[in-house]
Amino acid sequence: MAQTASMEEFEALLNESFEMDTPQEGSVVKGKVIAIENGQAVIDVGYKMEGRVDLKEFANPGEEPDVKVGDEVEVYLRATENARGEAVLSREMARREEAWDRLEKAYANDERVEGAIFGRVKGGFTVDLGGAVAFLPGSQVDVRPVRDAGPLMGLKQPFQILKMDRRRGNIVVSRRAILEESRAEQRAEVIAKLKEGDVVDGVVKNITEYGAFVDLGGVDGLLHVTDMAWRRVNHPSEIVSIGETIKVQVIKINKETHRISLGLKQLQEDPWDLVAVKYPLGSVHKGRVTNITDYGAFVELEPGVEGLVHVSEMSWTKKNVHPGKIVSTSQEVDVMVLEIDPAKRRVSLGLKQTQRNPWEVFAEQFPPGTEVEGEVKNITEFGLFIGLPGDIDGMVHLSDLSWEERGEDAIQNYRKGDVVKAVVQEVDVEKERISLSIKAVGGDKFAEAVGGVKRGSVITVTVTAIEEGGIEVEYEGMKSFIRRSDLSRDRSEQRPERFSVGDKVDVRVTNVDPKTRRLGLSIKAREIAEEKEAVAQYGSSDSGASLGDILGAALKRDE
Length: 559
Description:
By secondary structure, the protein is of the alpha+beta class. It contains nine helices and 30 strands. The chain has six domains: 27-109, CATH 2.40.50.140; 110-180, CATH 2.40.50.140; 194-267, CATH 2.40.50.140; 271-350, CATH 2.40.50.140; 358-437, CATH 2.40.50.140; 445-539, CATH 2.40.50.140. The protein is 19% helix and 39% strand. Strands 1-2-3-5-4 form a five-stranded mixed barrel. A hairpin with a 4-residue loop joins strand 19 and strand 20. It starts with a helix and ends with a helix. The model has no long low-confidence stretch (mean pLDDT 82).
């Protein structure tokens, strides 16, 4: 019994010894390099176990293997024996386990880790952290987008672990966080030395649509496009170029955000200091059109001094048109200074004021009564618009179209494009209006014909037509009509047929109407007037003398 017990104890002790000395599969063990052959290192891990590991597993990315005979190394025991009776070892897996332990501690303590970028993958890069492979997103490589990551490949540098999951084998790192922290310290140091108003040298690092970023020695400042020059700058590249060293003035420093605003034009003389002296009101200057908008055009008088020509000040005659139809960008034009506001840095300019008012010129060249010729530009319900010299229009009212026809009828005789003659009636320069008359061309025939005729005058007319209601007569080319009741004092003689075409008849003028251009005529009125005159001179009907006696005496006296 005693012998049996001692054998059991010996066996238990032997098994315990085996368990203590024999490494477990899936663990990291120490071994010794006993040989290097056929691109592999032969490693003795003890307990008469040897295994082979490819030399490449002893190399960091981009480097040569660092191992030699006699080196003690840690390896991962994947299996105690393979088909050839050798242990299955892995240096890479050992390094990974060791790295994960080290990285977990660094992640827990928010410490930086060292690694090297060795590959490119979708969305970023792979980083070797001393045995563990991490993912570096493209957005975390630098503070600004990196176009070429070549110079960073294989370079040992610090990284910050953003996230890690050992079970899934995922590690995400950032190089940008390290740079931002370093830059923040550097910015704080540089900003502490700067103050507003300082003039410093800087290097243009980047150019955008709205300005340029200038490196002031570890900290960037923004040189806005509006602070590059006193003149209008279309794009910052007109003033600066990447890599150029420039002298700038510190305009503003935000201590909280560490933002610095820079100025370049502040180091130059402000042209507005002399604007009032160089450009007095009413003076005319040559400028260049720099920009055209819906409400006008900007004209550069000199670099840094621009004025606005409002659309209402661009042309005397072209109303409600886009400024781009009057001037073009880069065109040189003559402008007049209308107003200056130094506080708002504004100059109001006039383009049309450099030319004479066409209505004034027309009034001088074509005073009222002058005959002009022009093309019918437009026809409206109240008259015609005629194109006149100076690119201006005059209006012929319906009432000034014809002497004979009504205006509504006379306007039907005209079409756009017709060339007509007219007489200037009135020119209103302030209201920019010109009144014309077509019917006045050749003079007023009615006025000329009846110029010496007035009511009560006796004139001789020629019978031109016999009608049932009276007779048509003509005087100096002007037609008139004598009604049947006015043909004689005696009712028996009021017969149109007693007259013949061509007869000469003395008539009395009863009315002169310039509007209807008609003379009121009457034979009856003439006879009554003659009777009254005879009675007044040769007797009275009360004395007993007959009218025949009185008229006979008057006729004899005349003879």
